[in-house]
Amino acid sequence: MGKKILVVNDTQSILEMFRELLEPEGYEVVLSSFPIQNIKEVEQIKPDLIILDIVFGNQKSGWQMLQLLKMYPPTSKTPIIVCSAAISEVRDQEGYLVSQGVQALYKPFDVSLLFHLVEQAFKTSEASMQKKKQS
To answer: Which parts of the sequence carry 4-aspartylphosphate (predicted)?
Structure first.
């Protein structure tokens, strides 16, 4: 299998849709229907990319997971795409997301845009790893 993508979303049909879209593209897809509170679990999964919703039910616990991921050194450089229908909430946090290198994908989304953002996240991640090796 290729690169591993962790998808975190509380809607089972959306999780399955991500699997159906990404696995044929050669990605290994790991699904979670709730935000992972113990970030060490994410470290054990070792995802190359995380696609994360920010609203679970009426809780905004995806934001907490995002902050934990960015503050924990082993996961801080893992590329993240926030995928949410909470467009105004995501736009309100756009400055923070940009500063953390997090992409935003709004539901409903065009599948070609999903693939573009996934490819872009991997290219950016690989470029930063190359820079790190050269310094």
So the answer is: 53
